[in-house]
Amino acid sequence: MKKFLKCRVTISLVACWIFFSAVGYLQKDTIYKKYAENMGTMPYFVLVLQGIHDNVYPWSTSNGAAVDVHAAQRDDYEKSQVRQESIAKQQADRTSDDAVGSKTPKQAKEKPKAEQADQKKREDTVTKEEPEIKKKEFVQVGDDYFDDAVFIGDSRTVGLGYYGGLDQADFFATKGMNIYDLWQSAFCDLDGSQVTLEEALGAKQYKKVYFQIGINEMGTGTVASFMDSYRQTVEKLKELQPDAILFIQGIMRVTKEKSDRDAIYNNPGIDERNIEIAKLADGERVFYIDVNDVVSDENGALRADLTFDNLHLYATNYGIWVDYLKTKGITEDS
């Protein structure tokens, strides 16, 4: 039985070999033509096995189309790859051109002209710019400089009017005046009548306006609230006296004795306000001047020998203030 089975297997193999060989031989010029050309003298059954590997069977179309299906697919694939590579190369070239410059050749040629135009425009702008306004400087002046001046302030300005010898100037000042009541109170003497500051300044135009105020506000409000009102006053003075130079004067300090023991009227508080007042000067029409430069001791406080109450000057010492003002004149030539 075992011998018979072994014979059957052998017989089957031989039969398959004969069948494939016959098919390969008969179809060597048709469906297996391509394999026969490539394989030379190889046995014919190998043609069939190779064809089966490529899905070409003995019953396939005998015109060789079945074999050529894979060849055509390979050709299409190769052509597709070539096309994709070509497209990718074109895109890469365009990207490279964009990186170099997005402008067209015509625009690229026009670029130097555009740069020249921009340069010329900048040069014209520089040429047409107005020259920088030179800040005016203080000059020495005489007594007649104050003939067309007005002094506005509190009790310290009252003392300057009484004892400074500036009889040719007008004084609108009163004891206890402060920045908050400046425009409400009728404290200005105009032809024997008491009028408000706005009325007084509206009745006459001056060439110089001297303004000092601030000692009476030390215990009221804050530096910020004081400066808000002070700033508004400066703008209003400029509006009412459009042709006048405005001198804003620093608040005169108190003596060291008073400053050290007084929680309200002290020099650190005065200096804090003076710093802010000085910021309002523009060097063209508004000028900051500070009499403390000539009435202070080595500690920066009001000299004790100049005052009778640690706050106001002796009548005989107001000349120091006037002499200081004469060194701070502003003229057309200055």
Q: Which strand-content bin applies to the residues?
A: 5-15%
- Determine the CATH superfamily of the largest domain: SGNH hydrolase
Number of helices: 12
State the low-pLDDT regions, or none. Answer: 62-74, 102-109
Assembly state:
single chain
What does this structure look like?
The chain has 334 residues and is α/β, with parallel strands linked by helices. The protein is built from twelve helices and seven strands. The chain has two domains: 2-67, no CATH class; 143-326, Rossmann fold. The chain has helices at 2-26, 33-39, 44-53, 65-100, 105-128, 155-163, 197-203, 223-240, 256-261, 267-278, 292-295, 318-326, and strands at residues 149-153, 170-173, 188-190, 193-195, 208-212, 245-249, 286-289. The strands form two sheets. A five-stranded parallel β-sheet has the order 2-1-5-6-7, with helices on both faces. A two-stranded antiparallel ribbon has the order 3-4. Strand 1 (149-153), helix 6 and strand 2 form a beta-alpha-beta unit. Helix 1 packs across helix 3 and helix 8 packs across helix 10. Mean pLDDT is 82; it is low at 62-74 and 102-109.
Q: Which terms summarize this structure?
A:
Rossmann fold, 2 domains, 5-stranded parallel beta sheet, 12 helices
How do the helices and strands line up, and which of them pair or pack?
Layout lengths: L1 H25 L6 H7 L4 H10 L11 H36 L4 H24 L20 E5 L1 H9 L6 E4 L14 E3 L2 E3 L1 H7 L4 E5 L10 H18 L4 E5 L6 H6 L5 H12 L7 E4 L2 H4 L22 H9 L8
Parallel strand pairs: 1-2, 1-5, 5-6, 6-7
Antiparallel strand pairs: 3-4
Helix pairs in contact: 1-3, 8-10
